[in-house]
Amino acid sequence: MPLLLLKDLPRYECLLESAKEFPDLDPSAAEAYLHLLRAGDDAFGISQRNLDAHGISQGRFCVLMLLWRSVHLPATASPGVKPCGGGPRTPAELAEGANVTRATMTGLIDTLERDSFVKREPDPVDRRMMSVRLTAKAERFLQDFLPGHFRTTAQIMTTLSESERKTLVRLLTKISTQAAEMVGGPAPVAAEPCLNAL
Amino acid sequence: MPLLLLKDLPRYECLLESAKEFPDLDPSAAEAYLHLLRAGDDAFGISQRNLDAHGISQGRFCVLMLLWRSVHLPATASPGVKPCGGGPRTPAELAEGANVTRATMTGLIDTLERDSFVKREPDPVDRRMMSVRLTAKAERFLQDFLPGHFRTTAQIMTTLSESERKTLVRLLTKISTQAAEMVGGPAPVAAEPCLNAL
DNA sequence: GGCAGACAGTTAGGAGGCTAACGATGATTG
DNA sequence: CAATCATCGTTAGCCTCCTAACTGTCTGCC
Lengths: 198, 198
Description:
Chain A is mainly α. Chain A has a domain at about 1-55. Chain A contains eight helices and two strands. In chain A, helix 4 packs across helix 5 (about 100-115). The radius of gyration of chain A is 21 Å and the shape is elongated. Chain B binds a DNA duplex through helix 5.
């Protein structure tokens, strides 16, 4: 469980109470924000539990899925359809896809290779690069593991109707888009000295 | 950024494609699940950026907020209104509130105390316990930091109308409730030997 | 009183992220 | 061709989280 998070979210009245002291506090925004993090962490925790039971970490699973995608959803899908796969092969591409640094990816591939889930091979053309490949063992593992994983994630969303899911995705996409704009924007005012100047 | 996560979510058609191979894959559920984790991580990342700029980690901030709540939202709020505060004081209570282990809380308090944000005091009654208190420096820091923090979280939700926020909270609460039920339920089938038996 | 068990806080060691720097290789450009 | 710069994968060291085990203190039952 990666997120260090409040266990019990403050009730709405408490947010209103705090808003008296901090005019910048928008109660409905804060409520939405906290529920988003809480629900995300809850959902993540459920699938984490599933992964743990199979002795595989979220990071390793992510790498396996990226490699699996590059095998099972090849770039040349049906004609006239944009390709779904053609996924990453090199450590740098995998790091990009998994949203981690290359250094972290080196560590992940190290342990995956130690456990015989992947194999490194030098690129015959560009000698700076490596090529990472799933082993047969990993293929068997995924064939075995994925159905249960999909059932678990489906069960989390069981309580939502199809139209509710559509609505949720729409709202979440709005949030992600807004977040991306804020990241692209100016960095937050660094009150760097505040920590030590007090 | 705690979540190791796919950078680009698979498009819906790709989920449909994969569902052919895995009948257990519910495309709309998977889509909602992935967007939830992505949006949660995005929102978390934004506020993380804010915290980083002030040299404070998410974990430390969480502890400070719990302690702040116990000071500024006392258990005896307005008459007839359920108390908002009366927050935790001891390391064990803080660990419970922040959803981490007591060992982790020890480490957090260690560094907070090193930076003069909190002070440990032995409990005069029960000599097993400690009492953790915010220092004046921490109070000043929060007074300084929180307005910007609240503006940031409010900005993330800027794109959502009041009714959209209400809807979002309602759907997310459903998900959290469902997740809590799944956690309480039976543990996932542990295919323990699968890793080494292959 | 005395002892088993529960509980608070800490310590030790491991896993998985990160940044910063490195050597090796390839690309670009005079 | 040679110098410079970019890129790839790796290493080293740090931080924060975790689990497991330990010490000291309280509680309950004889």
